[in-house]
Amino acid sequence: MKLKRIHHVAVICSNYEVSKQFYTEVLGLEIVKEVYREERNSYKLDLAVNGLYQIELFSFPNPPERPSFPEATGLRHLAFETECVETAATTLKERGIKVEEIRLDPVTGKKFTFFQDPDGLPLEIYEM
């Protein structure tokens, strides 16, 4: 078996409209496909990052809350690559998103910072 790349990351949100607005309008991800699944009372929104399908946003009735932040077992955070962390951080702040202080990765020498989606999922922007 040879894995080629990550196909997608699935995110479950507590408020579909709020999260849809965040991922599309605040982060600027492109909608590939949106489906309402009546039998599950659930939306599935396929999103593209820079033209590549990568994120599935799901809504489910009454999903459980994240057990702790950020050290719960499972996905720790989702990272997006950007050319300039400072520019991305400034844009997020202008859009009302709280962004942590920019740090320097001691191993790679690249800049990065964290912010959260509407449900508190840790998101990272990382310098190319």
From TrEMBL:
Q: Which domain of life is it from?
A: Bacteria
Keywords assigned? Metal-binding
Domain VOC per the UniProt entry, residue ranges: 5-128
Please give the CDD domains that the UniProt record associates with this protein.
VOC_Bs_YwkD_like (cd08352)
Segments spanning the bilayer are none
Is Metal-binding a UniProt keyword of this protein?
yes
Q: Which residues form a coiled coil?
A: none
Q: Which PROSITE patterns match?
A: VOC (PS51819)
Q: Which PANTHER family match?
A: FOSFOMYCIN RESISTANCE PROTEIN FOSX, LYASE, PUTATIVE-RELATED-RELATED
- The molecule here is called VOC family protein
Q: From which source organism is this entry?
A: Ectobacillus antri
Q: What is the lineage of its organism?
A: Bacteria, Bacillati, Bacillota, Bacilli, Bacillales
